[in-house]
Request: fold
Amino acid sequence: MINKNIFFLGCGKMGQIIVKNLLQNNIFDSKNFLILKPTSQNLISNLKYIHNLNEIPQNYQADIVFLCTKPQNSTKILADFSKKNIFHPKTIFISIMAGKNYEFFINFFGKNSEIIRSMPNIGIAVNQSIIPLYSKNISDENKIIIEKIFQNFGKAFFIEDEELFHIYTALYGCGPALIFLLQEIFEQLAIKNGLEKNLANNLTKILFTSSAKISEISPENFADLRQKVTSKKGVTATLLKNLLKNNKLQNLLQKSINNAVIKSKRLN
Reply:
């Protein structure tokens, strides 16, 4: 168990998931947490909550700070927060804010601060998140702490080029919404073609879960798996024909991803 003071600036859905995981895996003791401005639905027992910066205890020093506020509200909040004398030279700042780049945080905490930019996706709720991490100035000691913090959340990894955050956001941050959309479409098509709603919902979940499990354990690539279940001139081949013709589906998704990347860049 790491004996460090951990401060949460905001604690919405993603923040709550992170706190619960750190507690359940005994990374920190509940007494180590101080949480500012939680949402009323996200209160966790035995943790200390405050509702404004003036309630921070006197002489408090934060060893690890999770920056979990909404990006659109962050400039003023961080400006006020950075003026509080609760940091030391080795304080780790971990951002989970979408679209806010490394330089944005340097403006508030200084170029020598140990800042980590991260981007968990919703898979964090089932410990299967994809979490790119980026930092310019983290010590080996604190890197070990970061790895311990994220080790139970899924696949966390450092990247060297911060610009890649835009494609990670478009593909893997937004990806769950795309998967849910496909499930929604499958369910609607099943109902439209005569299946009862609850059955359509259940079968769609089984379809996506079983297919994902097969691809996870198989040494074959995705194209080989697809071809393996596609008999020539069969029903599956007929279903896929129009989608694969002239890369129709891929081109449509590429266009959507390009738009998402553009949006991500505008958030900086």
